[in-house]
Write a structure and sequence with these properties.
alpha/beta; four-stranded antiparallel sheet; 20% strand
Length: 313
């Protein structure tokens, strides 16, 4: 029996399976990246990196609930040179695409990092994070549309690697339209929707305290909390952007049906964050199998058979 294919295409980059890790979840160290490479994930995505090593926010900075997670990590990472150097190790031992996430703390830092990463042939694509909500004193670029244009003007003119952006969640229809008008003016290969929903608050009723330490307990929500918002963002940008810009779905994917819904809304591939934190690399195989079972029951042989074909009533 031939199982349905989960193969995906992001620009010209082929993925054996459409499932891979979201940046931020278990992808900071070489050991964590190697674990993803050795799993059933279709690609390996690094932690969002800055120019230099960052310790990040004080702990506790990540907390799980039944419905998902809250975090205020503060961009802990090894610095972009580490993830650039790791590309050589990765290519020597794995055929999976290797993507690097970039989240400079300023316009100049993003331009500098991407300029230098662009010359690294072991990197298959760069995901520019315009949406980190958990660095005190730093606003999200993705909500400043003029700054988004300024950044994209600069990085798209210098990047020699396929480039995509990770966006924050949008909630107003006009903001979807305004951002789409900006994005389609640039040679982007993909758009990842969404990063966590910023400035949520989770409380431990037993201790009467906030669940995480940074920012007096405020942090980014992930998991089931964000899935409806993630699906809305995936579908809106799928509708508004040209076909050559693929949509990567991210938010609330814990089983095969969740992945199916993201693809039905228009995602070409999906990233897994909270569930990967909870379950480890085994989640990629389990979710892939569940997605294939669901596709088989519906008579779908490949993702294109249902991608973006959400029906309205």
């Amino acid at each position: 029996m031939v199982l349905p294919s989960l193969a995906a295409l992001i620009g010209d980059i082929e993925l054996d399976t459409c499932l891979y890790n979201a940046s931020g979840a278990r992808c900071t160290t070489a050991e964590e990246l190697k674990a993803i490479a050795g799993s059933n994930a279709g690609a390996v995505l690094s932690k969002s990196c800055t120019s230099e090593y960052r310790e990040g926010n004080p702990s506790p900075r990540y907390y799980e609930t039944i419905l998902g997670s809250i975090n205020s990590m503060g961009l802990p990472n090894e610095g972009f040179r580490f993830y650039s150097d790791y590309a050589k190790q990765h290519k020597a031992s794995s055929k999976k695409p290797y993507f690097v996430s970039v989240s400079g703390l300023s316009f100049e830092e993003n331009v500098s990092i991407i300029t230098q990463l662009s010359h690294e042939t072991g990197i298959d694509a760069i995901e520019l994070n315009l949406s980190c909500p958990n660095v005190p004193g730093k606003p999200q670029t993705g909500y400043d549309f003029e700054q988004v244009q300024r950044v994209l003007d600069a990085v798209c003119s210098i990047s020699e690697r396929p480039l995509g952006v990770k966006l924050p969640p949008y909630f107003d229809i006009i903001h979807f339209e305004q951002m789409a008008d900006i994005l389609k003016a640039y040679p982007l290969k993909f758009v990842t929707c969404i990063n966590s929903i910023g400035n949520g608050l989770v409380i431990d009723a037993q201790t009467e305290t906030v669940a995480i330490k940074p920012k007096n307990g405020y942090g980014g929500l992930g998991g089931d909390y964000v899935k409806p918002t993630a699906l809305a963002n995936v579908h809106q940008f799928y509708r508004l952007l040209p076909n050559q810009i693929q949509i990567i779905g991210c938010g609330g994917i814990k089983n095969g049906q969740d992945a199916f819904e993201h693809i039905l809304c228009g995602a070409s591939a999906v990233q897994i964050g909270t569930q990967f934190m909870r379950e480890g690399t085994s989640c990629f195989m389990r979710i892939a199998q569940e997605l294939q079972i669901l596709m088989e029951a519906k008579g779908y042989k490949k993702l294109e058979d249902f991608k973006g074909k959400l029906k309205y009533i």
